[in-house]
């Protein structure tokens, strides 16, 4: 049933880079990309000190004209005022963040991707009421990587993220420090976070959301809170840490120069560094997923331009087989590029760089970035079957669980320290679902339909994508696909802790495509 789109050379093998004929709609790339800084949105805050964040309305000038009212996590650090700060922590640190909810509705801070206990996980099981406070205090046990935090109140996650309640958390460890030294790329200069979202923005610059919406897709792209940004780059290698924090839009990211796709080196995924760099042309980046890539602008000349683009793909199997995904009703998304259509995200402009200041044209050896065990032999691990489906009434389910029916009651329990294979089957729905597991990073064992890259190559051995070669907390399951995950439920805790498994298409999540499971002694 499922057809891979792209049309750009299914049969090209590993030949020359394909031509990209489809042009994305014209966006204006006039605002410089916001970089991590001292104040305001994306301000950098080290979690060495306890931090207090107020969830509140924040009025910011994002677009020309009237200011935009966001819901944001704001704080004061010394003399600095920060909003949705980019947090830094080191593996092994114990961090403390207090949430003071000044919104008119309950919210939380969920620490997406971190392996922590139930109470600090920040899921909707522990909402913070309007006017109330709570402290999150936990040890960062995860590998170095780009994680993120966001609101997670049951049924309201879609609207709260669309309005702005999300930020990045960068974890560092020894391997990462070594790599950074060897790459010689300064954080904030040639090593940059790209927090990508789309928003539905009205004429008055207000962010629009419709309660009960399905697949909320935006008419504006924001990267690091900058609409359709540009970035000046020198002819050299860059490292980008991309995070898709959109509600529903899956991206297929590539760097495009003229008709050519620039090759990337994938060096990390949700849960940190890969064992070795892996060459890729394009990567599917679903909501909640992160990737760490290196890309070389070294062969380009000042004045040339590169586009960070989401390439077209078939996002939904329509009855009329047109292949395009038409959000229903499209009237909810005025001016939006449909999901799956090509969309330009950011323009990179090559600028001059004095020869003597040019960084080395070659990368260091990247064949041993990190220690990652080979895939475990799961022959005698118990298998848990999970089926993604929609009923006749249009409600989403995982097996027979819809969160609104089953609620906080765990659908099942898992013994702490046990290891299981979770087999997620998307046989009954017409669109891909990014499935996210709280509390544990997993390995992808196999997938039955592995998307080839734009050259039609199978990217990695065994049907896996390059992304599947690392640790992940969110995995895309394509229509018709069965994805098998290996999950080790070891954790340094006792007692019962409840976690979520859900679709990170936030409208699906809010409609109940989520279950609670318990980890017990
Ligand atoms: Cu990023 Cu349960 O979420
Ligand atoms: Cu979904």
From TrEMBL:
<keyword id="KW-0479">Metal-binding</keyword>
<dbReference type="Pfam" id="PF07732">
    <property type="entry name" value="Cu-oxidase_3"/>
</dbReference>
<keyword id="KW-0812">Transmembrane</keyword>
<comment type="subunit">
    <text>Monomer.</text>
</comment>
<protein>
    <recommendedName>
        <fullName>Multicopper oxidase CueO</fullName>
        <ecNumber>1.16.3.4</ecNumber>
    </recommendedName>
</protein>
<feature type="domain" description="Plastocyanin-like">
    <location>
        <begin position="402"/>
        <end position="520"/>
    </location>
</feature>
<dbReference type="GO" id="GO:0016491">
    <property type="term" value="F:oxidoreductase activity"/>
</dbReference>
<dbReference type="InterPro" id="IPR045087">
    <property type="entry name" value="Cu-oxidase_fam"/>
</dbReference>
<dbReference type="InterPro" id="IPR006311">
    <property type="entry name" value="TAT_signal"/>
</dbReference>
<dbReference type="InterPro" id="IPR008972">
    <property type="entry name" value="Cupredoxin"/>
</dbReference>
<dbReference type="InterPro" id="IPR011706">
    <property type="entry name" value="Cu-oxidase_C"/>
</dbReference>
<dbReference type="GO" id="GO:0005507">
    <property type="term" value="F:copper ion binding"/>
</dbReference>
<keyword id="KW-0560">Oxidoreductase</keyword>
<keyword id="KW-1133">Transmembrane helix</keyword>
<dbReference type="Pfam" id="PF07731">
    <property type="entry name" value="Cu-oxidase_2"/>
</dbReference>
<keyword id="KW-0472">Membrane</keyword>
<dbReference type="InterPro" id="IPR002355">
    <property type="entry name" value="Cu_oxidase_Cu_BS"/>
</dbReference>
<feature type="domain" description="Plastocyanin-like">
    <location>
        <begin position="84"/>
        <end position="175"/>
    </location>
</feature>
<dbReference type="InterPro" id="IPR011707">
    <property type="entry name" value="Cu-oxidase-like_N"/>
</dbReference>
